[in-house]
Amino acid sequence: NVMVLCLISAAIFALYLLVCLIFFHNLPGGDGRGMKGLVKRTKEKVSQFRAKHSIGNIKLAEDVRDENEEEEVAAPKGPAPVGRWPVSIRDEDGAFEEIKHPGFPDGHVTMLVPRFWAEDPVAIHENKLMSRERALSIGTCITPDPKTGSNTRGDECPLNERTIFVAIASYRDWQCVDTVTSIFSAATHPERVRVAVVDQIVDGEDGSCDVPRAPCATDPNQPICLHKNQIDVYQMEAELAVGPVFARHIGHRLYRGEYYSMQSDAHVSFTKGWDVDIISQQEATGDELAVLSTYLTDIVGSIDPQTGLSLRKTRPIMCNTEYEGGAQGKHLRHLSQPEGIPDIHGMPQLQPYWAAGYSFSRGHFVATVPYDLYQVKYSIFCHPMCNRPAMPNPTHVLNSSGRSQILLKWISSYMDMSADDLPSEEMSIGLRGFTIGYDFFAPGKSVCFHSYAKGKNAAARNKVPHFWENSDKFKGTGVAAMKRLLGIVNMNPEVERSEWNHAEEARYGLGGARKTSKFYELYGIDVRKKTTQRHLCQFVRGKMHNMFMAHLRSDGMGIDYSGVDYKWVDPRPNDP
After folding, report:
1. pTM score, two decimals?
2. 347-385 as b/e, with b when 16 or more CB fall inside 10 Å?
3. CA dist 452 → 6, 309, 338 (Å)
4. How confident is the model over 290-322, as pLDDT tens digits?
5. Which residues are CB-contacts of 230 (< 8 A; sequence separation ≥ 6)?
6. pLDDT-derived band of residue 534, with 50, 70 and 90 as boundaries?
C-alpha cells in the first residue's frame, strides 16, 4: 500500500509540474514574464554575480558566448563600427572567431583569430563608388570631437592627430623588434601609431617582436616600453605558416578603424618624421582613394646616421609586369622595377600597380580590400637593384604573459605546398582595389628602407629562416589558390567558373566602381592570349600621371576612367 501511495503521489507531482511549465511558458513575454523571461532574468543575475566576483579578465566560455549574442542584437546596423582610440585586440579576448586553416583543405586544423573590424566590405562600398561621406566615416582621431565625444571626425581631424595602423608580417625574424622600435622612435607623433604584428615563431627559439633588447625594468625609455600599449602581437606556430598572404590576411584582421593604414616587412628602417612625411604625400594627391605603394630601396647608404633623414633622391615606381607560367597556369607577376628621380614633383606619381612590400593609404582600404583567406600561396618579389628575389617575411600568432592568448588546434599530419607555387597577392589586392575605386601612386620619396640579404647585410639576413622550410607540409594548395585568384579578377576566362573555389567571394571579390576589363585595356594586358604590351614604364614615367589625373573627380573620390579613352600599345615591340 505504501508503494502504491508513493507512485500515485509522484504521478500527481509530475502532472502538477507539467501544468506549471505549460502555464509559465504561455504567459506573455513582452514585459519579461513567463518561463522565457524567468530564464533571462536568472541569466542576468548570474552574469551580474560573475562580473562582480570575477578575477581579472577571466571569463567563462558561456559568459563570452552570451555577451557576443547580446552585442550582435544590440549592435547598430551600419557599414562599419564606430571607431575608438586607444584600441587593442587585447580587449577582445574570448571574442575571436574560429577559422579553418587554409593549408588544410579538409578543415581538420582550426585557429582562433581576431574578427574583422568591418565584417562586410560590401556594406561599405555597396558595389559602387564609395561616397565621400562614407569614406570619411572611417578613421579615428586621437582626440575626440569636443562636441560629440566621437573619435571619428573625418577630415576635420588635425593631420597630426590622425591615427596610423601599421601591419607587419614576420617569420622568425630577429630584426622585427628593430623595425617596431624604428617605427616609434622615428615618428614625430608616435602617440598616434598602433603597430600590429603577425609573428610566426618557434617558441623557445625565436624572440617576440614586442620584447625589447633590454628588459623594460632596466631601460624603461626604450620605444617598445614607452608604447607597449600601442603594440598588438598575434603570435602563431611557425610550422603553420603558409606564406605572407595568410599572415597578412590575419594582419588585416587586426585593423581597428585607424585613419590611415600602412603595411611593411619586418626588416625595415624608417626615416625621421616618417609619419608626417608620408601623410603629407598622401594628402598632396587630393585623392581620398589614393594608395601609396612601392618596392623598397636597400637600406645601405639610404639613411643619414646623424640626422635620421633620407639620403636618397630616387625612388622606385611600379610599372614593369609580365606573364609567367607555372603549375597553376600563366599569371602576371611584377618584375624588377625602375628607380629614378621622380618625374612628377610636389606629389606622388600615379602608377598602375600595387606592391605588397610597402603600402600606405586611408584606413578604409584595409576594410574594403582585405587579404583573401583562401589565397594560401606566397609571392616572391625582386627589388629593382637586386639580381635575385628578395623574400618578404611572413607572419605569426598571439601568446605569452601580458598579452592575449590565442589557441591553436592542430594535428601533426599535414598537406604541403611546393616552393614553385608563386602566386601574386599583388595582383589580387591591386585589381580588386582598382574595381572598388582606388588609385595607386609611387611615393615622391621613400620614408623607409629595406634590409636585403645582400652586401654587408647578407650574412645577418641569410641567418633568418624562411617560411618555405615548412612548404612540403602544404603541398597542392597553390594550384587551387591560383585558380581562385585568377577567376576572381577575370584573368582566366578560359577556365570554367565551376573549377575554382567561390567561398566568401563577396568579401574577397571585386567592387562595382570599375571593371577589370578597363584595367587590362588601359595597360595593354591580353588575358586570353596571356600577353602584355611591353615597355609600359615609358608611358607611366611620361604622360600617364597628367593624362589620368585630369579626370580626378571634383570631390576627390578617385579618377573617373569613364572619360578616359586610352589603350597602351608597345611602340618598340622589337626592342628588349
Report:
1. 0.80
2. bbbbbbbbbbbbbbbbbbbbbbbbbbbbbbbbbbbbbbb
3. 86, 20, 17
4. 999 999 999 999 999 999 999 999 999 999 999
5. 86, 88, 184, 190, 191, 193, 194, 195
6. very high
For residue 126, pLDDT beyond 70: yes
d(C-alpha 319, C-alpha 335), whole Å = 9
**468 contact partners, CB below 8 Å, separation of at least 6:** 243, 378, 419
C-alpha cell at 329: 597556369
CB 130 within 8 A of CB 437: yes
DSSP 506-529: TTTS--SSS-HHHHHHHTTEETTT
The answer for 56, left when phi > 0, alpha when psi is -120 to 50, beta otherwise, is left
Alpha carbons 145 and 149: distance in angstroms, whole number = 5
Q: Is 84 helix (H, G, I), strand (E, B) or coil?
A: coil
CA distance 314 to 248: 28
Residue 7: its pLDDT value, please?
A: 72
* pLDDT at position 515: 98
Q: Which residue has the cell 576612367?
A: 561
Strands ordered across the beta sheet of 290-293? 231-237, 193-201, 164-171, 260-264, 358-362, 290-293, 439-442, 349-351
Q: Which residues contact 304 (CB under 8 A, 6 or more apart)?
A: 310, 311
Location of C-alpha cell 570619411 = 136
Higher per-residue confidence, 206 vs 72: 206
Q: Which residue has the cell 609611387?
A: 442
3 backbone φψ class: left, alpha, beta (φ>0; ψ -120 to 50): alpha
Coil, helix or strand for 22?
helix
* % of the chain exceeding 90 in pLDDT: 66
* Amino acid present at 49: F
As a whole number, mean pLDDT of residues 491-504 equals: 94
Beta strands at 331-334 and 358-362: parallel, antiparallel or unpaired: unpaired
Q: Cell 578617385 identifies what position?
A: 558
Report DSSP state, residue 544: I
Which pLDDT belongs to residue 389? 36
pLDDT for 506: 96
Q: Whole-angstrom Cα distance, residue 312 to residue 250?
A: 33
Is residue 475 within 8 Å of 416, Cβ to Cβ? Answer: yes
- Lowest mean pLDDT across 73-87, 226-240, 422-436, 438-452: 73-87
Tell me what pLDDT residue 79 has: 80
Q: Which of 549, 386, 367, 393 is nearest to 467 (CA)?
A: 393
266, 195 Cβ separation under 8 angstroms:
no
- Note the pLDDT tens digit of each residue in 454-476: 888 877 787 777 666 666 677 76
How many angstroms separate the CA atoms of 531 and 516, rounded? 16
- Copy the grid coordinates of residue 278: 608620408
